[in-house]
Design a protein that fits this description.
By secondary structure, the chain is α+β, with helices and mostly antiparallel strands. The chain has a single domain, classed as Glutaredoxin. It has five helices and six strands. The strands form two sheets. The chain has a four-stranded mixed sheet. A two-stranded antiparallel ribbon has the order 1-2.
């Protein structure tokens, strides 16, 4: 496996059509299903920008970008922060980790997408996302990671 993350998969379940959404990202606005196109998506969440583990995962995803590309997989990440926080964080990650992040980070400060994908951890505070990973295939179906 190219990337290992502890994950709790809640929704969508394997075989479900992944919920579509439109969002602002660090690479510009996207419609999720259109953005996937005929590729697959590696859609993962973080509790927040600037946390140590999240910074490591972000930089590692950049480091293995060619591996994702050879498998026709597009990474995309959703922390529940603002676009301004994402932009500053990516500058920090790139500077401290020697990377050049080019994959989209979704702005979701209002938690709409996190709630759509049932990523919110009800045990913790409302803005904490569960460590979620979704693999979405070219038919927009969720598959097991």
């Amino acid at each position: 496996m190219i990337f290992q993350i502890l994950a709790i998969i809640i929704s969508p379940r394997t075989g479900d059509t992944a919920p579509d959404f439109t969002a602002e990202t660090t690479t510009g606005p996207i419609n999720f299903h259109h953005w996937i196109g005929d590729s697959r998506a590696f859609f993962f969440s973080h509790p927040a920008d600037y946390t140590r583990v999240c910074t490591t995962e972000m930089s590692r995803t950049v480091q293995i970008a060619k591996e994702f590309a050879t498998r026709n997989i597009k990474p995309i990440v959703l922390p529940t922060n603002t676009m301004a926080e994402h932009v500053n964080w990516i500058e920090d990650v790139n500077g401290s980790q020697g990377t050049d992040s080019r994959y989209p980070i979704v702005a979701d400060a209002d938690l709409k997408i996190a709630k759509l994908y049932e990523m919110i951890d009800s045990i913790e505070r409302e803005t904490t996302t569960v460590r979620s990973v979704f693999i979405i295939d070219q038919d927009k179906k969720s598959v097991s990671p």
